[in-house]
Structure formats: structure tokens, C-alpha cells
Amino acid sequence: MNVKLIKLNYQDKNITLIPTAHVSKESATFVEETINELKPDTICVELDQDRYNSINNPDRYRNTSIVQIIKDGKVGLMLVNLILANYQKRMAQQLGSKSGQEMIIGINKAKETGANLVLADRSVSVTFKRIWASLTFFDKIKLLSIILSSFFDDENLSEEDLKNLQQSDALNAALAEVNKNFPKVANILINERDKYLAYKIKNAP
User: Do residues 177 and 120 make contact, with C-beta atoms less than 8 angstroms apart?
Assistant: First the structure.
């Protein structure tokens, strides 16, 4: 795989970052091979508690009454999660993989080896609430239309496309496009979460 590991030293810790794509078979294999080789004390995954629960129980929304979801004020969160999850699922099916497989491997490897498992991402509900509160009415309509159109997009992506997206130049171009159209969204979704992830990783045991 052409994607390179990123290795950092922080105080007395050796930190290895594994660039991945959530719908890529090669990413899942890359994660497993890297963990097998490094035998880390701790495995950090880009998940919060809610998404970790979703991976362990993918049908949990089906088992939750709509009344309870409304009471908890999670209707919008549930809908966005379902739309994005279905979009990733369709991409994964195109590639013959499973969405989030690299996360599942990281979780299973932590259980198998006794490594610490750290859920390093900020709560998705906090992120969505901050994004929604930052948008004007017209920005909300524009963002929802983009999310919905991506759901119905039938463009096929190859593993090569995903590898290219993981390279820094392509990734920076994509992030620049998000920042141009939705600077507040980019700040909350990318910059704030990057800081949160960095803090959790550098303070992991």
C-alpha cells in the first residue's frame, strides 16, 4: 500500500498514525498488519462512544422506539447518521468491503492483545450540534441538499481513487473545498476534532 505511516515521538511515547479510508479493504488490511508488527500498548480509534456502540450494535436504532428518540432530541442526529451510514455502506459494497472495517479490526485487536482501547473522537452529537448552531437558515438548506444528493449519487469509486484521496495533496484540496463553501463547518468538523483527537492520542496510556 502506497499510504505511509506517520511516526511521532511525544515525551516517552512512540505514536504511529495510520491513514485510512473507512470503506477500503486495503485500509483494513493495513491496520491489521501494522498492529501485528508494532504490538502497541494502546490502540486509539477515530470513534466516540455513540459510534462505538453503533459498530457493536448496528441495529440499535431499529430497536429504539421513535418516541424515545424524539424525547431524547436525537431525530436530526439519527437522520444524518442513517444517511451518511447508508452512503458509506453503498461505497463499501462497490468495493467489496465493509464500512468501518478498519475500526472493527482495531477494536478486536485491542481485545485480542490486551492493549488499551481509546475512543479518541469527540462526541458526534456535540459536533453536529455545534455545526447546526453555526449555520444560517440558507446554509442549513444548502448543506442538507449536499448530504442528500451524495446519498443518491451513483458514482463508482475504486480502491485507486481512495488511495489518491488519502494522499496529502488530494486531501488538502478536498478540505480546501469544504473550507471555501462552509468555513464554519470545516472549522468544527475538521480543526476542532483534530485538536480533540490529538489531545486524546497524546494523553493515551
Answer: no
